[in-house]
Amino acid sequence: MDFLTLLQILDSTLRLATPLLLACLAGLFSERSGIFDIGLEGKMLIAAFFSAAIAATTGSVWIGLMAGISASVVLALLHGLASITFRGDQLISGVAINFLAAGLTVLISEDWFQQGGRTPQLSGAARFNPITLPLTDTIGAIPVIGPIYTEVLSGHTILVYLALLAVPLTWYVLFRTRFGLRLRAVGENPGAVDTAGVSVTRLRYTAVIIAGILCGLAGAYLSTGFSAGFVKEMSAGRGFIALAALIFAKWRPWQALGATLLFGLLDALGTRYQNIDILGVNLPVQFMQALPYILTVIILAGFVGKAIPPRAGGEPYVKER
Amino acid sequence: MDTMPKWADVILIPLINLILALLVSGLVVLYIGENPIEAIGILLDGAVGSTRGWGYTLFYATNFIFTGLAVSVAFHARLFNIGGEGQAAIGGLGVALVSLSVNWPHWTVALPFAILGGAVFGAAWAAIPAYLQARRGSHIVITTIMFNFIASALLVYLLVNVLKVPGSMAPETAAFPKGAHLPNAYEVLGWFGIPFNKFAPLNIAFLLAVICCFGVWALIWRTRLGYEIRAYGHSEAAAVYAGIRPFRITMIAMLISGALAGLMGINAVMGEAERLVIDSVQGAGFVGIAVALMGRSHPLGVFLAAILFGILTQGGIELEFEIPAVSREMILVIQALVILFTGALENMVRMPVEKLFLRLKKKAG
Q1: B27, B71, B72, B142: best to mutate for the A interface, most A CBs within 10 A
Q2: B326: distance to nearest CA of chain A, Å?
Q3: Is B241 exposed, middle or buried (0-12, 13-18, 19+ CB in 10 A)?
Q4: Containing H/E element for B15?
Q5: Which residue in B has a C-alpha nearest to residue A237's C-alpha?
Q6: What's the domain range around B270?
Q7: pLDDT digits over B64-120, tens only?
Q8: CATH number for the domain that contains residue B112
Q9: In chain B, how many domains are there?
Q10: Which one of A114, A232, A297 would you mutate to disrupt binding with B, by most B Cβ within 10 Å of its Cβ?
Q11: Domain annotation covers residue B46
Q12: Which residue of chain A has the CA closest to B329?
């Protein structure tokens, strides 16, 4: 493998990791507040559809992005209604949201565009275009660092940089603000937060809405940045890989970046090579595709460090009377 | 004391939930610009208006009975087995391996072995998440989701690299030997002189599904093990106090659950396709969740809910044929709404209904 190939692989790693990272951070906010979210997949999918569909009809990717985020937030609120207000099973609600998104996106796209569950191809201002980072000419001339800067870091859409920026931001919000402290507390011991006079319901709804916004960004990236249009089932299990990454990262933001980059790399390698020889053992592409899931099971099994979820996760909070 | 009579809990609430789900689905159809009443007419006619319709409806229902029972048994032990999809896929692999292993002389000989193959493979695929839940505390929902993906990757690998017929492009196994052919409804009913559609895939596996319904009912409500499973599901602490071992119950409930999901292969792989193809399950594992929720985890409820979803699946396909604007993904939406209303938003209906019954009771008293 030569240097240029390596750079190309790293470049696509970053592209493929972006939706995972955004969805993973979405799950981080939700689950840290005690609301399990296996509906990341569905929220991403519906956002992917609405951002591409609205971008195609209005010609503006930004209006599309807003539509995508709104659609994702609507599903997030539905999840909140079921799991916070009506104290339903959060896992079942997540399952329902995934199906709802899978069905509605195809149904509505057929109605709007009649293209077999696709939206029209996006071009120009209707999609996010690559941004060239400043000083590429100057830095590009430096050996080794130069090509890394120009080939790997530069030339992505704005959402990629936004996703990377979201990592320190999430860390800051969760670990350096009062809101973050309360959010983490409500996921561990909602009773204590309630006793302190802070509304559990409100905190959890806020967390669920933040998750909706981040999933919206992830979905919009899929259909208007990564690809040029929506295709049915385009989230293709990424919501579940993000969930896997979240467990892999043990519900922490910087580790989430690491985990999603790792899974992005696996994806990039799997797309590029059909078979990989490692120490004489031939690894088929299907093994690479399954690796994130296998790794997650190993992590969950606690053989490589124990993943301990937020203690109050999955349980509806019933105020004492 | 119960606030509601039993019939309200078992019939009224699921019915209200179903009506709500269908109403919202009707609104979706209305939004697309089609007439929901007309759509329901086409759907019902396509599903139950002919022997061909019935043949497909009950074929799909058979799949859903297996996966619905699988989810139900795990539910009784308060385990949410979301891995029916993967267990059914691996079960299908087991059925296929058994069917291809020998040149079977007759289906009556092949069937017991195929049942064993499907059940053992399905149970094995459920065993690892079950063990990890029982021994290492890994959340079974997440591990079973992961195992669905691993199963799908494994099957693609096996079909493309190992099981494919040499020289063929299609990623599927060879056709099963003639002796492994299960009689379909046309043949079975033909023995009694009853005419039935020749091409509908309904086959003898339907009877196996019905037997499984009885079996699960007997197991859960008529055996000591079933009592232990239910006790464990109601309260782990109380069960442990009564000397019930959580590890044992978790393992047994999940193994039975996986075996039931694996048996779906008898219907879909052995009964219909007569070869193993990629994605033989086609989402039936997930429909099982809706079926179990709707059927209140009771075999009779599961049976009825499975037929309902069979009608929706077959009718939905016919509907797409008649009104192309309403694509078959409509069934996904209905399924999602049923899961939402009967599962996640259950309290939205239950709370007002309970209040109503309390008020009635006060008036009467």
Answers
A1: B142
A2: 7
A3: exposed
A4: helix B13-32
A5: B149
A6: 62-306
A7: 999 999 999 999 999 999 999 999 999 999 999 999 999 999 999 999 999 999 999
A8: 1.10.3470
A9: 1
A10: A297
A11: no
A12: A103
